[in-house]
Design brief:
about 400 residues; alpha+beta; five-stranded antiparallel beta sheet; five-stranded mixed beta sheet; 12 helices; about 20% strand
């Protein structure tokens, strides 16, 4: 056999082998695809192949599909209400439906993305239809549209209510001095109520914190000890695998105990009641620095312990709120907290070196943290000054009387 002929035969064999491998890979992709695939004869529109995913999705067997026209299959009757869609596909070689409603053989309503392309396969022109199930997405979009419509209705209703309330408020203000006096008394009652609610809230925080720490914490600790005992017994009995599983549960219990302690501390740190507000502020500053990376220095010049629980709690919560604002808004690298006694007053100051609070935000009623600071201070008969300059940071300065001059809480 001449060398040239032999080389041609070898090259042909190599091409046939590569083609066969390519066909096998194509078939595997066809059989395992998670989208439906239909193959049609481009001239007649008859189905020549359908992958397993599509068969299961539509509820038709392969035998029920092969040889049929696309529009003879129940779910696709609406695609080509006439054969015009098929003729357009033959002409444009591409057709797409972004959201096509179908009804399967089992009467299930589905939504699909339908894309068809025309190409050559082994010298024959075929049409490949890719069918993707988008039912879940369609349902989510419908739910979102319904929710948006409902939300718009609620907004309209709420807007109408607010307009009515505004008209009523204007009428009340127009009544003159008598209405103004009533409004002033109403504000005083609301402030008193606010003070009472804050007092009850702190009592409830303390109670829940203690119950979590004492009852739940002790129960979890006992559980951990029991697990430890079981683990040691299993290990001593040579049951290493069960012992290892118990150890994992024991580690989980340890993490839960830490979480419980953190929750209890966040509700009301025990150090505030046990060692007083000064120790609690120092503890909070250290925790803040560790958590945020912002340096926090505390300077205290108060010789006597603040025995008034309400006053001590208010000071702690004011510092806590000020540090929270620094963390969220200030972009600072350092915070200085000072507490000192000047005559018959306590002066608390929280100063940061951040971007500085904007003037409009200081008096903004939506700045709930600052509103809360002012309310606490007013309830104790004190004054709160909040100021800031761009690039020079923010100062929260609070002056409180040492003796009781607060508005009653009840």
């Amino acid at each position: 056999m001449p060398l040239v002929t032999k080389a041609i035969l070898m090259e042909r064999k190599r091409i046939e082998t590569a083609l066969k491998a390519s066909e096998i890979r194509h078939r595997r992709l066809f059989e395992t695809a998670k989208d439906g695939i239909l193959i049609l004869d481009a001239d007649t529109g008859r189905i020549t192949d359908a992958n397993p995913f599509l068969q299961e999705f539509l509820g038709y067997s392969r035998e029920e599909l092969l040889g049929k026209m696309l529009w003879e299959i129940g779910p696709f009757r609406d695609i080509a209400a006439s054969r015009g869609a098929f003729r357009r596909l033959q002409k444009k070689k591409y057709i797409r439906y972004d959201n096509l409603p179908l009804e399967t053989k089992g009467r299930r309503h589905r939504h699909v993305e339908f894309v068809s392309n025309v190409y050559q396969e082994n010298g024959t022109k075929v049409i490949q239809c890719n069918i993707r199930d988008i039912t879940a997405r369609h349902q989510a979009e419908e739910a979102l549209a319904n929710f948006s419509k409902e939300l718009e209705n609620r907004v309209d209703e709420r807007t109408a209510e607010l307009l009515t309330a505004n008209k009523l408020m204007k009428k009340m203000l127009d009544e003159g001095k008598r209405a103004e006096k009533k409004l002033t008394k109403s504000r005083e009652r609301l402030r008193n109520l606010s003070g009472r609610l804050q007092f009850l809230l702190e009592e409830e925080r303390t109670r829940i914190s203690r119950e979590i720490h004492d009852e739940l914490g002790q129960a979890l600790t006992a559980l951990k000890m029991d697990l430890s005992l079981i683990r040691r017994r299993l290990f001593s009995d040579g049951l290493a695998e069960p012992a290892a599983k118990i150890q994992k549960i024991e580690l989980g219990a340890t993490r839960i105990i830490r979480t419980v302690r953190k929750i209890a501390t966040d509700l009301r740190p025990g150090i505030l009641d046990e060692l007083g507000v000064v120790a609690a502020i120092k503890w909070m500053a250290k925790n803040f620095q560790n958590r945020t990376g912002i340096r926090c220095k505390v300077a205290v010049k108060v010789a006597d312990k603040i025995s008034d629980t309400t006053r001590a709690t208010a000071i702690f919560r004011i510092v806590q709120e000020a540090l929270t604002n620094v963390m969220r808004h200030a972009a600072a690298s350092q915070v200085d907290v000072s507490l000192e006694r000047k005559g018959d007053t306590l002066v608390l100051e929280v100063r940061d070196n951040g971007i500085g609070i904007k003037e409009g935000r200081i008096s903004d009623s939506k700045s709930l943290g600052l509103v809360g600071i002012r309310e606490r201070v007013l309830l104790l008969g004190g004054e709160a000054l909040i100021s800031g300059k761009p690039g020079e940071g923010t100062i929260v300065r609070v002056t409180l009387p040492m003796e009781e001059r607060a508005i009653p809480n009840a």
